[in-house]
Design goal:
359 residues; 9% strand
């Protein structure tokens, strides 16, 4: 990719972000800075102890098939027009599939963008990975294993290279799934381990334990990670039906994570999942997602929880109980992936620019 093309792409992404910020009803301020975070004693403590109280966590598919902690409003007025423009057509789905399947990182040293999904137990991380793969497989599948209890089914670092359509090569996208925040002191995830994953030190399949933090003696520990081993974008995943009931400590956890991750120069975005559980109109017709006052209001609450502007957050509906694909659900999922990849590419551009400056 030429320097001119990279500049144009970077300008396009930032212009898109600026436009979204102008349209979104609630915003927060966020600034990325570069450098390595300083390790602290707190970084080795389980994030779960200040994050999610799993005693009240629902029993579900990755905790997600439970009764939502949100009651539909009797009357749900709609906006006259979408507050974010989306083309809900078969042609748009085809276009987005082509964009994702043909994606290649704008960095010669990297062949695949590694995306890390972080969020509370039952937020829908694993289901999002499976839903995206379902779009390309042409049928609903569960590629990333999802559980049916109050604790996270995912216990170790798992990387999923999203496959293209039948007969096509794998895409340039790898989604990394790890244990959910809030699994309790015994299996909870620590800040130290999360940062180790992002830096590329943690081997594939590593099982996390707060009693055994990742260190140089860990079997398979990657002492000198290559650019391809590192995480290029972090995606926070939160459940729209639980935003109002998440414990206060979770917001502190997210803010702490974002501060350290930002210090590493890694861009972050967020997914607001289960939007169909908080709005009856969306449960019937997902194309109403950007006409819903309820969703726009919940996006603002998610932004406050995460400490980021709503322009970084996109709503999604995963395939959980569905048996058949839906064009509009596919468009929403693929739009989220496109959003993620644009910020992953900003990471490559930022780091390429730094290398150029110091030559």
């Amino acid at each position: 990719m030429s320097l001119e093309h990279k500049v144009v792409l970077s300008r396009r992404v930032r212009q898109r972000t600026q436009k979204m910020q102008e349209n979104d009803s609630r915003e927060g301020s966020f600034k990325f800075c570069l450098g390595e975070p300083v390790a602290t004693a707190a970084s080795a403590q389980p994030l779960s102890t200040a994050a999610v109280d799993t005693k009240d966590a629902p029993s579900s598919t990755e905790g997600e098939e439970s009764k939502p902690r949100f009651t539909f409003q009797a009357v749900q007025p709609k906006l006259e027009s979408q507050w974010r423009e989306v083309d809900w057509t078969e042609a748009q789905r085809t276009s987005l599939m082509k964009t994702v399947s043909s994606y290649k990182p704008s960095c010669e040293e990297v062949t695949r963008a590694r995306i890390l999904l972080l969020g509370p137990v039952g937020s829908g991380k694993s289901s999002f990975i499976s839903s995206v793969q379902s779009v390309f497989d042409g049928r609903v599948i569960n590629r990333a294993m999802v559980g049916s209890s109050s604790t996270s089914f995912t216990k170790k670092l798992q990387s999923f290279n999203i496959r293209g359509q039948k007969g096509e090569a794998p895409t340039g996208l790898v989604m990394c799934d790890i244990i959910g925040l809030g699994d309790g002191e015994i299996t909870g995830l620590t800040l130290h381990d999360i940062l180790s994953v992002i830096k590329g030190h943690v081997p594939e399949g590593h099982k996390f334990s707060p009693d055994q933090p990742v260190r140089s003696e860990t079997p398979g520990y990657v002492k000198s990670p290559s650019p391809e081993d590192k995480i290029h974008c972090v995606v926070f995943v939160v459940d729209a039906s639980k935003i109002l009931t998440y414990p206060k400590g979770l917001s502190t956890t997210f803010h702490q994570l974002r501060e350290h991750i930002s210090d590493m120069g890694v861009h972050q975005v967020a997914l607001l999942t289960h939007v169909d559980k908080i709005c009856s109109e969306i449960a019937k017709d997902v194309t109403q997602v950007y006409k819903s006052y309820t969703i726009r209001d919940m996006m603002g609450k998610a932004a406050a929880l995460l400490g980021m502007s709503t322009s970084y957050i996109v709503p999604v509906k995963n395939y959980s109980s569905d048996l058949d694909l839906d064009v509009n659900t596919d468009v929403l999922l693929l739009s989220a992936v496109d959003h993620i990849l644009q910020y992953a590419d900003l990471y490559f551009q930022d780091n390429t620019s730094q290398k150029t400056q110091f030559r």
